[in-house]
Write a structure and sequence with these properties.
Layout lengths: L1 H15 L13 H33 L7 H34 L7 E7 L2 E6 L16 E4 L1 E5 L4 E6 L5 E4 L7 E3 L5 E5 L5 E7 L11 E7 L1 H12 L8 H8 L29 E2 L4 E2 L2 H9 L1 H4 L13 H12 L3
Parallel strand pairs: 1-5, 4-10
Antiparallel strand pairs: 1-2, 2-3, 5-8, 6-7, 6-9, 9-10, 11-12
The chain binds dinuclear copper ion.
Length: 330
């Protein structure tokens, strides 16, 4: 029992270390608060039951079996084994059902489409809603990738889909997980309660780079959100120069779009405002021209399993010029 106590204390210490932008214990959204509330009630309930069962076990090992009255044993089975679990489980069921109308409350914020793709997140702001055919998500919207901005205090709708395998969209500080499933559109509502930058991950094993399939959620005021989406809708800031020519000549446009240039590939992330995003490689590296160059040069080293091929065969000066241009696209 001393060992149990020590293990319990260690677990508590571990849990207390779970703070930061990616923790279900450090909530920044209504949905995550509800999940955390349910978690604590179940932890306390489980602890009470555990102490009772362990206490009972200790008691019966210390007294002679004959000293325990048969009638007590039968009562324990009926009350402890049948009535008590039935009441507890029924209580939890009705409590959970009671939460559902609240969770279904209609969203009043923007609708954002997010597609989980091996191994990044396609994002489209202000889509019309209603499932569409373009890569399993509603057509249109303002394209972006791997970073999702949300207005604080509003219920935003995230429409989730996937063109390849099942992924799972999870920003632990904001809401529970929701799968992104090929062939259907799932709906997740998020109501952030405070501004800040939150980390998210793919929570369903989807292939080699599953662990590097992250994203950021940036929660800002309503005005900042509107300004951000307007800025993302605009064409690229720089559409001419050596970086642009090299980008087009080396075939980058087969997969990537940069609006304002002739690059209109749809396979990889839209790069029109890539430098406005905090990370490249889906939450992997901070966005700097140096990191962009490193990524282009050897994707397979930076992010093993990534679909984008390495361009290590290009002369260093060309990689640098492309990275400098992309690094200027805020
Ligand atoms: Cu996508 Cu794991």
């Amino acid at each position: 029992n001393v060992l149990h106590a020590i293990a319990g204390l260690l677990l508590l210490l571990l849990l207390s270390a779970c703070t930061g932008a990616q923790s279900a214990f450090d909530t920044g959204g209504v949905e995550a608060e509800r999940v955390l509330g349910m978690f604590w009630i179940m932890v306390v309930g489980a602890a009470v039951i555990w102490i009772f069962v362990i206490g009972l076990s200790c008691y019966v090992t210390r007294v002679s079996p004959r000293a325990v009255d048969d009638r007590i044993g039968i009562r324990l089975i009926i009350w402890g084994g049948c009535v008590f679990p039935t009441l507890v489980l029924a209580g939890l069921l009705f409590w959970g059902l009671g939460m559902m109308p609240e969770l279904r409350r209609p969203a009043d914020g923007p609708t954002i489409a997010v597609s989980g793709e091996r191994f990044w997140w396609r994002v489209a702001y202000d889509v019309e809603g209603g499932p569409g055919v373009v890569r399993n998500l509603p057509p249109g919207g303002v394209p972006s990738a791997n970073e999702i901005w949300l207005p604080v205090g509003q219920r935003s709708t995230i429409l989730l889909g996937s063109p390849d395998v099942i992924h799972s969209f999870w920003a632990p500080s904001l809401a529970g997980k929701m799968d992104a499933i090929p062939g259907r559109v799932n709906r997740l509502v998020m109501e952030p309660t405070r501004t800040g930058v939150y980390n998210g991950v793919c929570a369903e094993f989807c292939g080699e780079a599953h662990a590097q399939m992250g994203f950021r959620v940036v929660v800002v005021s309503e005005q900042e959100y509107a300004a951000y989406v307007r800025a993302q809708a605009a064409p690229a800031a720089v559409t001419q120069g050596p970086g642009v020519d090299l980008f087009l000549r080396n075939g980058c446009a087969a997969c990537h779009s940069v609006r304002g240039t002739t690059a209109d590939g749809q396979i990889g992330p839209d790069l029109t405002h890539v430098a406005s995003r905090r990370t490249i490689g889906a939450g992997l590296l901070p966005t700097t021209p140096e990191n962009i160059a490193a990524f282009i040069r050897s994707t397979d080293h930076v992010k093993p399993g990534v679909e984008m091929p390495s361009f290590g065969m290009l002369p260093e000066a060309e990689v640098t010029a492309i990275a400098q241009w992309l690094g200027s696209l805020e």
